[in-house]
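Side project, low priority. Logging it here so it doesn't get lost.
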Amino acid sequence: MSRWLTEWWTYTLSDLLMFSARSYHRLFELYNQDIWPAQVVALLAGLAVTAGAVSGGAAASRLAALLLGLAWLWVGWAFHLERYAAINLGAPWFAAGFVLQGLMLLWMAAKPVPRLLRFNASPVSWVALAIVCLAVAVYPLLPIHEGRYQSQGEVFGVAPDPTAMATLGILLLVRARWPLWLIPVAWCALSGATQMELGLPLAWLPPLAAGLAAGIALLGRGRVSSTADYRT
């Protein structure tokens, strides 16, 4: 134990992984089989979130926050706690983070004066919408690009990466406060690092989406915070 305490800094993420890329993909394949047809419901929810991102307004904002909140709660329980925990000792902690994020999003949906989705055809809005569309429409198709079975696809609302990425796009559109950003950004960074260690070709997608969304939000923070139109 004392040796571990003095040499912990020598360990890398690859030393902590207990599974291979094949096991990781197989996990999603079995998960998708177990929860079918929940993916259909999740995709419909993703389309509703995407449509709300374009239409804007109070109703669309509440619906997006509600659907995202439920998605985070589902992924925290059904994926992290019930499946991912079998191959990753950190999964229960991931589950706790996803549940916390889900509760914060549900609180956002229940607020008397919600932060509103505002798609105004600006570069920021287009980037935010592109991130949402990438997560909802493109991410489930990545297995085809990588030569894997489509049954291993990761679907928004039931898989962690596309759920976190879509959330970041919505948070950018509503100019959300910083507590709502922490867990999605942290998850995308962690997931990207894990996939890089597994040698997956598109491991850069989640951290790229997180860095782009968070970077734009930080750059616009001063201007947005001084504008009364964005206050709740």
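Brief comment: The first helix runs from residue 2 to 7.
Revisit when time allows.
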